[in-house]
Amino acid sequence: MTRRPAAAAVIDVRDLVVRYGPATALDRVSLHVDAGEMVALIGPNGAGKSTLVNTLSGILKPAEGSVSVRGRLAHVPEGRQVFGDLTVEDNLRLGGRRYRERDTTPVHAILPRLADLRHRRAGTLSGGEQQMVAVGRALMSRPDVLAVDELSLGLAPLVVADLVRHLQELNAQRGLAVLLIEQNARLALDLCTRAYVLEAGRIVAEGSSSELIADERVSAAYLGGVVADVE
Amino acid sequence: MSSELAGYLLTGLGTGCGYALVGSGLVAVYRVTRVVNFAQGAFAVVGAMCASSFLTALPHGIGELAAVAVAAVVGLLVGLVATGTTPQSALIVTLGLAVFAYAVEVLVWGDQPRSFAGLPGAVSIGDTRVQSHYLLIIGVTLPVFAGMALFFTRTDTGKALTACASNPYAARVIGLDVRRMGLLAFTIGGALGGLAGVLVTPVQQITFDADVTLIVNGFAAAILGGLTRPAVTLAGGLLLGVTQALVAGYGNAAHQTEIALGLMIAVMIWRAARRPAAQEEPA
Q: What's the pTM value of the predicted model, to 2 decimals?
């Protein structure tokens, strides 16, 4: 199920090269995410994962290759990056600004906690709450695909489990495609059906999550060397 | 309170409003673009000079507004040049543009002080008389600050500007055009600077190099609030204006600026001492 041409791809990246001055951050990366699919991108710090997402959302420009996104892509950036000076409600509204989506009720329906917090300044919230604001802000644009950069970083396991449950619901009920970038490879591979492994700017492995979990090298590098049970 | 003191306070508040407007222009630009705009004082000079020309043909109100509009356009032009580079280089770029503005101003309006009539008449406080125009300055500035506060906290565009100020990276993530927002901030900065020039010129003649006094005092007012807080900038501007008026009134007018700026440094040192040494980066 890997490397097939992606006819129904919402994200289609081909031979992407991104450079920071003389340094090459991404070197001929190709990947795709199909409609309604959950795909993980794992790899060590500095591998270029965030560079890839920043290129997908148009913040960085490709030096070579192509990036195509069909429909709306929303980006949940690493480190949550909420607008700390603004209220939760304002954070959400700004998320919908690009597509003139102003109604926050659909997002409140998905993440009810954000309705309770609507008048709080985002900068005063806990890390988990801020991550929820960042996800809610991204959902405001009614995206076809969500690129989540480090969902779990710095968050307590229970908070992560809650966020993961929300992502799974969105995927199952609304067909939202997800590209999940994660340090926590175990979490990412459990959640997603397919995954790519990015190291030093190159895709070094790809396949279904079960294939990658069974792969000794991937297992040793990212799963603590224990070949896990595959559900 | 003696009528003399009341008079100094009133003129001081009027002058301080000018500093606060220039300072808030700096704040508007810095918050969104991280550029310290040294051309901010030039906006005031351009506004004042234009008003002095326009008012020979246009009625009061229209002439002043047109001058503020020109200053806003000049702000946009400076922004176009300054946002094309890094904030560090932009500082030098704006300084260069401010010097370039001297040449244009001297060419168009000459090097002699210019002025124009403001609100006529004077108000009497006991046996002290103060030009009514000072009341107009205060009466325009305070609603402008209130309006800016509403704009930045209540309108979509204002919130988008605040978002760019709060987290430029996240602003890009959600698809805000950060450069365009920066240009809007420069335009607002131009209008605020122009307004300062238009308002203070009837009580203080303006020359092409008057921007130095305005920018130094405006910067002092703005830096009190870390270049990011309009309300503190207003307070700082008023404090500077009043201090200068009191020093000039009861002491020596030749030292009014030095003493007022000395006071600002003292306030800044006091504030810095109260702040914890290690500050957390806002999330």
A: 0.85
Q: Which CATH architecture has domain B3-274?
A: Orthogonal Bundle (1.10)
End-to-end CA distance of chain B: 48
Indicate the number of domains in chain A. 2
A84 with A28, same domain?
no
Cβ–Cβ < 8 Å for A193, A209 = yes
Q: Is residue A101 part of a domain?
A: yes
* Domain match, A1 and A31 both: yes
Q: Are residues A117 and A60 both part of a single domain?
A: no
The range of the structural domain enclosing residue A85 comes to 74-143
Q: Which residues of A touch B160 (CB under 8 A)?
A: 94, 97
Contact residues on chain B for A123, CB-CB shorter than 8 A:
282-283
A3 domain-assigned: yes
Q: Which residues contact B260 (CB under 8 A, 6 or more apart)?
A: B217, B220, B240, B243, B244, B247
Alpha helix (H) residue ranges in B112-229:
133-154, 156-166, 168-173, 178-200, 211-224
pLDDT digits 0-9 by tens, A17-64 = 999 999 999 999 999 999 999 999 999 988 999 999 999 999 999 999
B173 → closest Cβ in A57, A84, A90: A57
What is the ipTM for the molecules in this complex? Answer: 0.87
Tell me how many degrees the CA angle A205-A208-A211 measures, rounded to the nearest 5: 75
Chain A contact probe: residue of B161, B166, B173 with most A CBs at under 10 A:
B173
